[in-house]
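Before the break, one more example. Copy the sequence into your notebook; we will annotate it together after we see the structure.
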Amino acid sequence: MTVIPETQFKDLPLKRQGKVRDIFDFGDMLLLVTTDRLSAFDVVLPDPIPDKGKVLNQISVFWFEKMADLVGNHLVTTDVNAYPAPCLPYKDVLDKRSMLVKKADPLPVECIVRGYITGSGWHGYQTTGHVCGIQLPQGLKESDKLSTPLYTPSTKAEVGDHDINISFEQTVDILGKETAEKIRDLSLEIYNKGASMALEKGIIIADTKFEFGVLDGEIILIDEVLTPDSSRFWPLDDYAPGRSQKSFDKQTVRDWLVNSGWDKTPPGPKLPKEVIENTAQTYKDIYARLTGDRL
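Here is what the structure looks like once it is written out:
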């Protein structure tokens, strides 16, 4: 079992601790804190990546605003001075790496959109000619752009953290036809808009995942949106179909881990200083490219 360091906010009402984020419960609102923890191969590594949490949090804020014309979201504020009183002693730490959000009922389906054939989709295509049960044309190369993005939902396993691919028909069984169609259509719309905007900034969003919740009978976007941790980002200037692509996120860490001989079981090894620094800079570069701002 992966061991995650204790949260530093010991007197706040901790609801859940993920690999990267700490979630605190304030009644009808939640405080989401994106830490600098980094996980690879489902293991939280001992070394944080400086300011990584700020980058991920601020990118989600950026996209929540850009997608507001398509769908509502759970964001209330990122102004730490407007947070509940128990948070104020930590406002310097929480600034830029946290958000106060409305508490919604999460839908039990993860909405995955694939714009390019890569990763597990590519492996499945090589074996069967389809991706998650969706038949694709013959002759595609690794990392090819798909003529139409694919919606390939998944659900969480009962035990463990690995996703289980399901068909659209199964999402209908889980959610009902209207809700299943709504989140499918929203996922594709959000991906298409985000991928188009990112491409103008020199970033390919190869695939991504979204999560939705229900609040007061309305479907809203929750969790994170089009971040380097929920998406596969590739630099446009290095893109070439027919091979795997340079990943514009924590690929430096993954490459080092693979070459280190680590067996991918906890605990993870300590990272060299240069790997930490290069990864931190990569995250900051993504934020600057997307938003035009610097942290």
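The first helix runs from residue 52 to 66. The chain has two domains: 1-103, 106-238. Try to locate both features in your own notes.
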